[in-house]
Write a sequence for this structure.
């Protein structure tokens, strides 16, 4: 006997994948597409049915949730007694909308966007920013998603590239000026960031500092945040080909126009910016800085040696599994504050990566008959390699080098000319990592490339919408968790909250609208953090 009461239907043409499990072919609706830790495309999906021998899909209840326009079989004994499906128009997820709108309203972002871009374009930018906040930067499903969120302006595949290309530099500066006047209340943090992109032209100067394993040319960003609130304030893009010494002046070129005094900025710089001349320039001009320093620098190595035995003392416990010590020392002859952070969990991950890399290097050297200068340079970080005239070689592991790196596993070292509490300094570091992870895969412009619009202009517009999305994400995570002790906790909290919001749905009937089901305790608690009650939600839905 067939336990599924629904009649077979043709499977949807788009937005689904079919996977075989044993003898069955199951049909899944794609909720979200993203890259996993290995950089592979992965889907967040929900089962909506299975294929029968005729190639038709036998649906389940979830199918009608995501494809409400389909008619339910009148004989279905699973039809809800509280809903007359003859009168059903649609079922839509509304949780995202109300939270995003409340954040934008509380920050006055919606009004600023409307003043700069006009009501219609502002609504489209909000739709795109909300999508990037909820779904990520892959825009292939933007049209279907925006149609499902009935309260947001629909953004079609044809409109998206036109919108992104229409955002001008003048409009962006007008926005930044208004947003800074509203959101900035004190000193700023300026982050030196690198995120992957894929410009068609491949300038060799743009390949350094690339985090992306696909070796795509990167975007380089100066990102400004408010120190007290953590809200993004402003960003500027800059080419990597400029010299390190001139980079700061390029990054701060818009400061005067935006009324930002360089004395009010703390620059959080990547370790590749580190050099003696740069440090001297920063000290000479009395510029405040923090550098994410390599654990193998001589100064940091000596500092790690000094605290290695005592770092896990309870007196050094900061939060969760994180321990910290602050030292005063000289870095390249300049008095500096050194902040050392140690995590046993991070140490375990670092050691696993180190020994995996050693095993890979060992296997590579074993099978190599001859070697090149490039290979020697690469492998000499762990091995002593002797090469004869015929480029044949012998090698032996250098245990001192391996032990030195092993000893530094689990440490994060920050060097600065300012004095801060250890907890606050680490939060600056976590903000940078969170921004970089949030902006990862920004270059994914699926469905937008075969257009008449310039790819560079599309990407610049997408970066601006990602900035709005980052403001939403920053305020969102600040509201839902009280202590951000790890990047994983922050990202997991966001995903869990978004999952709860996705389950808040409204049913639209010909007689009006209402919530599909009462809110759970967790949903009510989550909405309360943004000042939204179930009564507010019900009234807004009924009056729409």
């Amino acid at each position: 006997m067939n336990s599924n009461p629904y009649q077979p239907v043709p499977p949807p043409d788009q937005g689904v994948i079919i996977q075989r499990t044993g003898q069955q072919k199951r049909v899944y609706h794609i909720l979200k597409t993203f890259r996993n830790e290995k950089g592979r495309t992965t889907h967040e999906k929900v089962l909506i049915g299975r294929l029968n021998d005729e190639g038709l899909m036998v649906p389940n209840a979830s199918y009608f949730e995501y494809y409400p326009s389909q008619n339910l079989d009148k004989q279905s004994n699973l039809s809800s007694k509280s809903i007359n499906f003859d009168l059903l128009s649609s079922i839509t997820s509304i949780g995202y909308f109300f939270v995003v709108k409340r954040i934008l309203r509380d920050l006055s972002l919606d009004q600023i966007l409307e003043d700069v871009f006009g009501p219609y374009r502002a609504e489209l930018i909000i739709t795109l920013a909300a999508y990037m906040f909820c779904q990520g930067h892959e825009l292939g499903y933007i049209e279907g998603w925006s149609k499902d969120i009935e309260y947001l302006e629909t953004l079609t595949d044809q409109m998206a590239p036109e919108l992104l290309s229409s955002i001008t530099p003048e409009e962006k500066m007008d926005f930044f000026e208004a947003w800074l006047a509203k959101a900035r209340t004190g000193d700023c943090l300026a982050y030196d960031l690198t995120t992957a992109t894929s410009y068609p032209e491949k300038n060799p100067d743009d390949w350094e500092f690339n985090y992306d394993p696909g070796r795509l040319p990167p975007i380089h960003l100066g990102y400004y945040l408010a120190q007290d609130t953590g809200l993004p304030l402003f960003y500027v893009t800059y080419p990597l080909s400029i010299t390190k010494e001139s980079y700061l002046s390029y990054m701060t070129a818009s400061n005067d126009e935006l009324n930002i005094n360089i004395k009010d900025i703390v620059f959080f710089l990547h370790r590749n910016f580190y050099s003696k001349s740069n440090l001297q320039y920063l000290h000479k001009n009395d510029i405040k800085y923090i550098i994410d320093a390599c654990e193998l620098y001589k100064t940091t190595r000596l500092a790690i040696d000094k605290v290695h035995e005592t770092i896990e003392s309870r007196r050094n416990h900061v939060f969760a599994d994180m321990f910290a010590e602050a030292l005063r020392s000289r870095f390249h002859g300049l008095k500096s504050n050194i902040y050392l952070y140690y995590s046993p969990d991070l140490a375990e991950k670092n050691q696993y990566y180190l020994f995996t890399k050693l095993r890979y290097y060992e296997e590579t050297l074993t099978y190599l008959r001859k070697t090149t200068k490039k290979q020697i340079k690469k492998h000499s970080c762990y091995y002593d390699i002797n090469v004869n005239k015929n480029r044949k070689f012998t090698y032996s592991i250098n245990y001192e080098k391996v032990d030195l790196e092993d000893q530094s596993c689990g440490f994060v070292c920050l060097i600065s000319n300012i004095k801060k509490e250890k907890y606050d300094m680490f939060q600056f570091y976590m903000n940078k990592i969170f921004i970089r992870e949030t902006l990862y895969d920004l270059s994914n412009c699926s469905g937008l490339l075969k257009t008449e619009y310039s790819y560079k202009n599309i990407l610049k517009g997408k970066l601006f919408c990602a900035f709005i999305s980052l403001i939403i994400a920053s305020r969102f995570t600040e509201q839902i968790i009280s202590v951000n002790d790890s990047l994983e906790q922050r990202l997991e909290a966001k995903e869990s909250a978004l999952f709860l919001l996705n389950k808040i749905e409204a049913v639209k009937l010909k007689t009006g609208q209402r919530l599909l089901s009462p809110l759970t305790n967790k949903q009510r608690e989550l909405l309360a953090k943004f000042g939204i009650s179930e009564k507010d939600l019900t009234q807004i839905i009924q009056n729409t």
